[in-house]
Amino acid sequence: MSAANDLPQLLPDLLPRLWAFSLRLCGNQHDAEDLLQRACLRALERPNQLRPETTPMSWMFSITHSIWINELRARKVRSHARVEWDDALLDTVADPLAPTPEQSMMNGQIIEAVERLPEAQRTVMLLIAVAGLSYGEAAEVLGVPIGTIMSRLSRARQTIGARFSEQDYSSRKPSNGS
Length: 178
Known about the structure:
Elements (H helix, E strand, L loop, with lengths): L2 H24 L2 H17 L10 H22 L11 H4 L8 H15 L3 H12 L4 H8 L3 H27 L6
Helix pairs in contact: 1-2, 1-3, 1-6, 2-3, 3-7, 6-8, 7-8
């Protein structure tokens, strides 16, 4: 029996990772819920499109990303070009690894830095760093060469690193009165 035939049974186990990916792509819970529902519906309507050499998780990431890109294009047409991060979302995402206010603040700064990346770099960062996909899996999800994934990820990391280096430098720089 193929993974396409098993999709209704496999989908519940895929939902936590798909939800996290959707939430990070969209930046708000309402849009993420809609995106995830549309992705699941599309997968269940078209199980024959799941190729035997593709994992169901990669296929679902690809569907989710494709729907999101189409949504962004539609928003641009409707003159809503940029999705802004909603700080209230931080309160809805439990992070057991950030018990101190300092760690929570740093996590917020990292999320903000990722959100400011260009869409292509942000998506690659989310697939690799958040969803845990390999470079090859991310390339398959996005339909681009692995070199493109590596390049986008490198530029994203450089951009984020430069932003934090600038913040660190400006916080250590003595004032003119010293």
